[in-house]
Write a structure and sequence with these properties.
The structure holds 2 protein chains of 2 kinds. Helix content of chain A is about 40%, strand content about 5%. Chain A has helices at about 20-45, 50-70, 75, 125-135, 150-160, 165, 185-195, 200-205, 240-250, 265-280, and strands at about 10, 15, 90, 100. The longest helix of chain B is centred in the N-terminal third of the chain and has 28 residues, at about 1-30. Classes of the chains: A mainly alpha, B mainly alpha.
Amino acid sequence: MTLFAFRGVKSHGWTFYDPINIMSKFFIKLIFITALIIPMVFLCAVPSSAQDDEEDYEAVLELGQKVYEVRCALCHGVKGDGKGIVGVIRRAEKIGRVIETHARDLTLGLFRFRTTPTGCLPDDEDLMNIISRGILISFMPSHEKLPLVEREALVEYVKFFSGRWEEEDPCDPIEVRKPDWVGSRVSVDKGEEVYRAMKCGECHGYEGKGDGPKSNDIFDDWGKRIVPFNFATGELKRGSSAENIYFTFTTGLDGTGMPSYEDSLEEEDRWHLVSYTLKLMNKLN
Amino acid sequence: MYQRFYTALLIVSSVALFIFTLMAGYREITPDYKSYKSEYRDLFRSKATGEFMKKKAESIDFSVQQVYLGKLNRIDRCINCHLGVENPLMEDAEVPFKMHSGNYLETHPVAEFGCTVCHYGQGRATNAEDAHGTDRETHWDWPILPLKYIDSACAQCHDQEMLAENGADRVLRGEKQFVEKGCRGCHKVNGIGGVLGKALDGIGTQPRAYFPMRYVQGDKTAYTWLKEHFDDPRSIVPESEMRIVLLKDEDADLLTTYILTIRADEMPRDYRRIRTGTQEVPGGEELYKMYCIACHTTGKYSVYDEIFKRTIPAIMNPTFLRVADDNQLRRFIEDGRANTQMTDWKEDAAGLTDDEIGRIVEFLAKSRPAKRGKLFGRSIFDGDTARGRDIYETRCALCHGEDGMGGKNRLGISLVTPVVKEADPEFLLQTVRDGREGTPMIPFGSSGINLSDQDILDVVGYVRTIKPTASPKE
């Protein structure tokens, strides 16, 4: 970019710039560049015909299908019903418990890791996030190395499996503003009170080890047995930052026993709960 | 002025010192055991009926008594408080005067055996606190052994069959746990066993300083350490890689009892009653339990393990056994898999003899299906490795990793190991074509992904050329 390239006067090994000269040249350049860009933007924004759109979408779906069938169908099934040939995957936890992991059935259009309110579809960015980053703990690999076009095509193709995407639009994502006091001692104590008051321990265990009295009979919407998160493992599937934990409380994990607390807890209390969770996960010093 | 002050100070301190001396003297002439002795005498008097017994009650010696055991290198003074252990009148008295339970003292008289040889504790001590040495802050090496672990002491002299016949079968049951939970898969005893854990030789005679007591909840003693460590290894040693074998509470006690019998010392010959009968030769199934079961469990399914941070393969699934003949299985066991927790098991590494490995192989081979897989019909690898690489990166790298090392959060196992490199072509080609039942390794041939034979040949050709990266990726 030539916008910031200016010629100075060299003398005694130093380069001297004349500020007034630079300012004036800068603005002249800026005016020229803007004059070039504006018509280009207008050119691009000219609406293309509906038929072109249709054809583009078909092409994207086709690419998505190709990538999906090579990379995803092994586990999620060709029809997206989670019945790929890989089948059940077993994982032995440190505490000796063996968890059975099943590939997600995409036909219901239910997704856990969203930034949108509970009951809503995830937005494209959420899907892209999961495809790119993977859910390593559940053996969903990262596809970051795929070209962006292919990943975008995958997002479109994943939406193709469920009729929900035709009937509803994704809601707006929830905004997150992390307060400064998250993780402070006072906040952790308040979070612990919330944890007791909301009876989180009944599933997650009174010490957060995922071994609460109800932990043994929880099933997800697909009828598979699931286990509540053991905070002591320190790693959440969606990522372990404060914001991610906040999303879990606010959006809920649709399809599982984890509800959204958007209506039942004040925003401040949810952040206190984030502090306490971080403490249970050993992420605070 | 000052003189009066110093005089007063001198008088006060002299009085204090005098009182202190008196108290020390009083303590010295009235030790704990003397009060026990007088209490015991009163009890004995009240219970004694015959002339002889009454006389015996009167003749109790109030000085320190001790049993000197030259051969055992012990001096036991326990009988100064535990006065009634050999007195039948004290059958329903309270501890410490109670008679010893059972008929053990008939065959093990106190005068010949003392007490600490079975019960541990400090024999020379003259007060209960030091003799028992069980407090939470104890520093004695030999805290008294709780009765639930007492069977472990019998095994010093007696063989377990004899103990089992006489009702002391807790050691035998503990050993059963030791074998069936596969402890030797990681721990060596007498030079035989895996190398991942500490060798257990002499663990029953280790002083308590050997055990890191920081996180122990109960008494800081070796047996409490062992018991709590079985319940949750990582609550006692946070960085431990030991598997939780999901013992019931009672089983953990049994296992502790057995572990305490693995001692470094030996009883003098006169005391030993160990019959050296013919030892039973363990069969293949027993050996599998002993050395393999802790990681491979039933061997029917592969499991990703959070402690080892890699997938543990299913070694008893039919598709694996169909392609791996006995020689191949033997090689897997003997040489292990480089850079994984599967270390080599041959005699100079883990102490398994050729014969024993043979019996394990024989046991595994029992699950082999009668029908062999369709032959691939290649005896050399002549695939196009460049083409193989492309296929590997789209098809295989998702699970095995681009480096082929498997590892953390990957379903595939490590392919970068001499075992794969030197394996029989038929073994590798059929594995890729037919997959592995019970594991995420799906068939890539016509029954699954439908890769052509040439594709499989190419990809296997490439896999064999992958070089190990510097360190296995976590």
